[in-house]
Amino acid sequence: xxxxxxxxxxxxxxxxxxxxxxxxxxxxxxxxxxxxxxxxxxxxxxxxxxxxxxxxxxxxxxxxxxxxxxxxxxxxxxxxxxxxxxxxxxxxxxxxxxxxxxxxxxxxxxxxxxxxxxxxxxxxxxxxxxxxxxxxxxxxxxxxxxxxxxxxxxxxxxxxxxxxxxxxxxxxxxxxxxxxxxxxxxxxxxxxxxxxxxxxxxxxxxxxxxxxxxxxxxxxxxxxxxxxxxxx
Amino acid sequence: xxxxxxxxxxxxxxxxxxxxxxxxxxxxxxxxxxxxxxxxxxxxxxxxxxxxxxxxxxxxxxxxxxxxxxxxxxxxxxxxxxxxxxxxxxxxxxxxxxxxxxxxxxxxxxxxxxxxxxxxxxxxxxxxxxxxxxxxxxxxxxxxxxxxxxxxxxxxxxxxxxxxxxxxxxxxxxxxxxxxxxxxxxxxxxxxxxxxxxxxxxxxxxxxxxxxxxxxxxxxxxxxxxxxxxxx
DNA sequence: GAGTGGTCTAGACCACAGG
DNA sequence: CTGTGGTCTAGACCACTCG
Lengths: 232, 232
What we know:
The structure is a homodimer.
Chain A: H1 3-18, H2 28-35, H3 39-52, E1 55-58, E2 62-65, E3 71-72, E4 77-80, H4 83-90, E5 92-102, H5 105-111, E6 118-128, E7 131-140, H6 156-164, E8 168-178, H7 182-188, E9 196-205, E10 211-220, E11 226-228
Antiparallel strand pairs in A: 1-2, 5-6, 6-7, 7-10, 8-9, 9-10
Helix pairs in contact in A: 1-3, 2-3
Chain A binds a DNA duplex through helix 3.
């Protein structure tokens, strides 16, 4: 087994057992000394941890442990075919609201963005044969003011690619389930006893790697299912 | 912008316009010459493409294009990075039951298998600091009778690889949410108001492509979250 | 054997955060 | 300013695929 894999594995163990969320990993140079390898080899090991979502790099600062409660990051590589992408095809899209807002503080903190940033907030509702199945909030960063004026439904990513030459690449996606709020019950036409699935997605500019969109989708669990397809 | 990003961007364009699925990219050394950079820089660029799922590396062979522009437009593919392995590290695994049974008829139909097939059924429970968070049923096909006798927790896939030289590859995975049964409430120590997430996974023999495992995981939605990382 | 990707080392300089 | 991560170069050797 490659050296960097062994180091990654050991660091994973130590993070799980000896670190808390927010702690900084020792600097790469120190780790390199400790494991008696080149700094590049340590970097390669940390790459693994970053990919698993265990740590996050901060230039000039260090590597911060970001562990969520239990991050069920999957080790095998497969492709994720996400219904949200195909939604423009089979589902109707209803634009609920589209405006520029100040990014909610909670999101700003989570995404590591400055407070007070103005963003486009697009809220949509997806329907299947008239039944609402999914509510989505898109937060879009760094767009011209009028960027979304012409958007009238369908695939948002397609629209951004065609109209603004912005090509987005999916980043980390998180899925969880919870009970709906009263508001969600109304908008999704469900009773209070039906759970909703909440999916958070990062989308980055394919060229520059900058975060351009963060979306939160809430869907009816009685009608909606997510599937992950293996890569060819 | 970093050199490797520019190169990645250019290669992406060329792949989209001038290559077909299955083609090989020029070797790293040639690309390095062409872009007048070090081979490592080209590698870093190709890393991006691999991460986007555009190409796949084959040691001794080259980099194969695995996605045409058409595929790409239809469904953006991101990867699913999963660590059942890591769960063996940070979480305790409790073996609830391990026996040979006749595959339940409902599953046989769904998986397109004959009725009456005998399989290994392994039931496990995962705990975090003593709290149960996840119940898993593994159905394993075509194993010797005593195959699992020595399994005592940790990663099942690791065990199969080490002890039986069976290397598994993730296939289709489906995720949904629902309310728990009474039995699940008991085993997961949750109240009836907490949804569970249910994840069904196909796993195939990496060599022969034969279905070897079907697993059903049910997890507490108040403690558990699934994450999907972009990756080949 | 020749050519490919995979890993590791060594050294250099840059960009950024913090005191 | 110092220390951190980010990038790039250069060279070496290995593991693998193919003819």
